[in-house]
Amino acid sequence: MTTEHALTVPAPRAAGCPFDLPQAYQQAAVQGPAVRVATATGGECWLITHHEEARAVLGDRRFSSDAMLDNFPLMTEELRKMVSESRSTTEVIDDQEHIRRRRILTAEFKAKKVEALRPQIQQTVDDALDEMITAGSPADLVSRFALPVPSAVICLLLGVPAGDHDFFMDRSHTMLDFRAGPEAMMKARLDLMEYMNRLTAEKKQQPDDRLISDLLASGALPEEEVAGTGLLLLLAGHETTSSMLAMSTLALLRHPEQLALLREDPSLIKGAVEELLRYITIVQNGVGRVALEDVEVGGQLIRAGEGVLCMVSTANRDESVFPGGEDLDVRRDARSHLSFGFGIHQCVGQSLARAELQIALETLLRRLPTLRLAVPVEDLRFRDGVGFYGVEELPVEW
Fold this sequence. Notes:
Blueprint: E1 8-9, H1 23-31, E2 34-39, E3 44-48, H2 51-58, E4 63-64, H3 77-90, H4 96-108, H5 111-135, E5 139-140, H6 141-146, H7 148-158, H8 165-175, H9 182-205, H10 211-218, H11 223-254, H12 256-264, H13 269-280, E6 287-291, E7 295-297, E8 300-302, E9 307-310, H14 312-315, H15 350-367, E10 372-373, E11 395-397
Parallel strand pairs: 1-2, 3-9
Antiparallel strand pairs: 2-3, 4-6, 5-11, 6-9, 7-8, 10-11
Helix pairs in contact: 5-7, 5-15, 7-8, 7-11, 8-9, 8-11, 9-11, 10-11, 11-13, 11-15, 13-15
């Protein structure tokens, strides 16, 4: 098609509140649930902006998550090459094989197993805070707390030696940072894949009670797929939770009345985490799909082969589902948010992410009752060039 569109995605955020959505996305949501837009990569797609329609698309198997399909939103040739070279171990599939593999992982992330990890997560959080407090105020909450806690937890879950945590933080950060360039991103991915292959081989010879060893012992996946699965879980469980932890802290510091509610009643923390997931929505560029057949969405016919971008951020602020959705309210019932996706590709590690955020935020607020920003919010640098919204550093004092 050669039609011109008023909106090109991804759209930049305007200066001002870091939690305001790009104005272009807000305007698109007003136009309707499905809006035809241009992409910065030279293509076109449908932008799905409302909650009901985004949920429907994400749960509909007539829409594929295979990034190798033509017209998959925001795919550059460099990214397509990276996905192509990774498909042997990280292939995204939509059929019964995906469901089988998902069930294997879901068993590893059952709420019961995650609950059993809570004491270890608590210890990890306390250790990180002990080190940060000992080093003294002010401190960068990202490098001292928000990054090392999720990294240590996912490495603990997988069975990665503690001495390799820094390696994983560095390589995963580069792999997910589009600003690093395709060559650096690919090199980081290869480094991580080589490491996971070696680690998986070691676990086969010397098993422990962690996830990689469990997957190998089950025999449900070939050895090379166990390594690829471990890498996916590492990336998904590290960068996303890290970004959410830092941004959640910033959101609460920017909303002192909400922070006061949590300090007064810590039992609100579970609901507050759901509200923070909804309000922040770190998946800032949406969730891509390609229609496998003609489907009507929100009164608009989307034809087979056309790309779709579910804008989770606008869906999570849909006034018909979340009245006053532009505001943060830790007492809101926000459990229907789409921050973990929906349908067969919904995040399998969401129980772990919730537990980490609940424990980390509750402990941080309890142990540092005078926590505050050490610099004006205008001086903060935000990560707009990556798939997950975040802040580069978060200087705090207490």
